[in-house]
Write a structure and sequence with these properties.
3-stranded mixed beta sheet, two-stranded antiparallel ribbon, alpha+beta, about 140 residues, Glutaredoxin, 4 helices, about 15% strand, about 35% helix
Length: about 140
């Protein structure tokens, strides 16, 4: 038997190994990281209100892609309008293109306006937090 010819069983094994390698490679490419768009005004008090979220997103090992936009820029205005929001909104956080999500307990949460927590202006009651964003991302990252 010539040395360049493979036995049928070996040929089948090599084909299966190649298919597995291709599947693993494509699976990694298809499993893109979640995208978090942080859209807000570039002036105070927005940066300080977003600091806990930005710190959480910047943690080592974070497997999310973060996009930051100034809401007053044409791109920021267009993005906010594209998701159906209107009016004077200081902050919008989109996770995979959506600002409306469910908490683990099933309650609804919208990542719009100021978050609860440090940096939020006095007298403003935030309805979401960096932890809420993290809970939405946890099953995906």
């Amino acid at each position: 038997m010539p040395s360049h010819r493979l036995k049928p069983a070996r040929r089948l094994w090599l084909a299966a190994a190649g298919a597995c390698a291709l599947t693993l490679t494509l699976g990694a490419a298809w499993a893109a990281p979640p995208v978090v768009e942080v859209i807000g005004f570039a002036h105070a008090p927005v940066p300080s209100a977003l600091k806990p979220l930005r710190d959480w997103l910047a943690q080592p090992g974070s497997k999310v892609r973060v996009v930051a936009l100034d809401i007053a820029s044409p791109a920021g205005e267009a993005r906010v309008n594209a998701v159906g929001l209107k009016g004077h909104i200081p902050i919008v956080v989109l996770v995979d293109g959506r600002y409306q999500h469910s908490r683990p307990d099933g309650s609804a949460v919208e990542f719009v306006s100021f978050p609860a927590g440090p940096g939020t202006p006095p007298g403003v009651k935030g309805t979401w937090s960096a932890a809420d964003v993290g809970a939405v991302l946890k099953p995906r990252s």
